[in-house]
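Hi V.,

You were right to ask for the full record rather than a summary. Here it is.
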Amino acid sequence: MNRKIPFEKNELLAIDTIPGFFGGPDMPLRNTPVSPKENIAAMYYDRHPYWTPGSADAGMIMPPLYNDNLGRGGPGGITDAFGIEWEYVEQVHGSIVRPGTPFMADVNEWKDKVIFPDIDKWDWAGAAEENKIDTRRSFQLSFVNGFWFERLISFMDFLPAAMALIDEDQKDAIKELFEATTAFAMKLVDKFCEYWPALDGFNVHDDWGAQKAPFFSQETAYELFVPHMKALTDHIHSKGRFATLHSCGHNFLRVQCFIDGGFDSWEPQAMNDTPGLYEQFGDKLIFSVMPDVFDPKTATEDEMRQAARNFVDKYCKPGKPSTVNYAAGEMMTPAFTEELYEYSRKRYGGFA
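Predicted structure:
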């Protein structure tokens, strides 16, 4: 890909608007030299984008076909494909499994309790028709709840699931269950690739940590999780798509697991040292990094633009690209985002 395309001011012009993320305000689509979709492909496959991607460049899909069967539903609540009830919690704008009645008490019960849905019977063609992709942008499918620890929590509740990871009497059953959930995940990948051929990647959810530390040890991670992660990411890559990870919590100490699990990027929460992650591992995994904090209510336009240039200088290097962390939302002012685009365009093109 030729990145030696000089920056032109007319690239900053909005040629269209696109829907905001999860119902947020519409965002401008700029007059870029290549499409946002092509730019993100350059980031993942060449590690050398044309500019630092922003929130307007990419999107997620999670059609009801998935969310009402394997996700968390919406304000109305759902009973998922495994027969588990999810209740919506207004205060957090999300759903949890109805507490007090775990689906199973011991992982050794899984073969008697867990019945995987026959996804061949789902209306894939209808779902694809109702959930079309804007092919100018890069889209991933969001596998909310994932297939490993989060799914185990939904089956057992958190404490029994966490205890099962260190219970020698349940470990073999966990490995068998995760082998089955991973095989099921591969079938889902195949279906989504068939009916959404423009899909660029898959974002897999599996929360591994609390505010201050991971939930389980590195040894447990490598024994129970990493082999299945790698099997799924290998399958995703075989389909010509990239694999990204959503894993909430203070998981700085588990980043090598994510690398060895085959993921292309991780979007860490800001409680993690995102600049440190970039410095240590940015050549192996693409991170969303927190910029230097400024107050958008009091900062001048020059200060906002300087903050964007500082971000580019530190975290936007060919072979070691990054994106801006989603927790920086308030700092993504028009001045910051415009400067981030222009300066990163010049930087990646070798003009700055």
